[in-house]
């Protein structure tokens, strides 16, 4: 006898539903879309972190955000970015068939090296990308030290050549 298996993930969905009931509804929007429970609205914008000899750079993807909706701080050796994407008011005449974009507050924090010049940090928001540049202090940049030639006398008193 051949048994038909309609949904191979049914048991997993049931287990997830039981876990959600046990810990409470972690979805702050509390919405269901076509029988699917929305994923938790925990999210953070993706970021690229780069470094050159002069600058530590961050590029955050924050499409749809305006400057005043983002808070960027550098303090206590950390760079932090905060913001919130709000879900539009639910309308009686609008049916949502799928909601996949993440909503809610986000907070990103990155430890910074000690050689950052916080007085010269620059940030620009262009086409949904927040570009943050943190210049390094002049004294923190690598400095080549010339190696001289000469006799052991040039090493100074009480020192011997290796």
Q: How much helical structure, as a percent, in the residues? A: under 10%
**How far is the first residue's CA from the last residue's CA?**
87 Å
**Tally of strands:** 9
CA radius of gyration: 27 Å
Could you state the order of secondary-structure elements as H and E? HEEEEEEEEE
What's the mean pLDDT score?
78
State the assembly state of the protein chains: single chain
Task: Characterise this structure.
By secondary structure, the chain is mainly β. The chain has one helix at residues 10-23, and strands at residues 32-33, 36-37, 47-51, 55-61, 70-75, 78-85, 104-111, 122-126, 129-135. Strands 3-4-9-8 form a four-stranded antiparallel sheet, with no helix packed on it. Strands 5-6-7 form a three-stranded antiparallel sheet, with no helix packed on it. It is elongated and about 95 Å long. The relative contact order is 0.17. Residues 25-41 have low confidence and may be disordered.
Indicate the topology.
Blueprint: H1 10-23, E1 32-33, E2 36-37, E3 47-51, E4 55-61, E5 70-75, E6 78-85, E7 104-111, E8 122-126, E9 129-135
Antiparallel strand pairs: 1-2, 3-4, 4-9, 5-6, 6-7, 8-9
Give a brief description.
The protein is mostly beta strands and 162 residues long.
């Amino acid at each position: 006898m051949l048994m038909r298996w309609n949904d191979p993930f049914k048991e997993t969905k049931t287990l997830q539903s039981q876990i959600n009931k046990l810990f409470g509804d972690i979805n702050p929007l509390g919405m269901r879309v076509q029988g699917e429970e929305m994923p938790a609205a925990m999210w953070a914008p993706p970021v690229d972190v780069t470094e050159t000899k002069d600058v530590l750079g961050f590029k955050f993807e924050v499409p749809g955000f305006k400057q005043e909706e983002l808070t960027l701080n550098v303090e206590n050796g950390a760079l932090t970015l905060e913001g919130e994407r709000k879900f539009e008011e639910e309308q009686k005449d609008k049916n949502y068939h799928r909601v996949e974009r993440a909503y809610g507050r986000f907070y990103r924090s990155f430890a910074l090296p000690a050689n950052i010049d916080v007085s010269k940090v620059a940030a620009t928001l262009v086409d949904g990308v927040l570009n943050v540049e943190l210049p390094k202090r002049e004294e923190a940049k690598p400095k080549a030290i010339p190696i001289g030639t000469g006799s052991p006398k040039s090493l100074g008193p009480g020192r011997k050549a290796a």
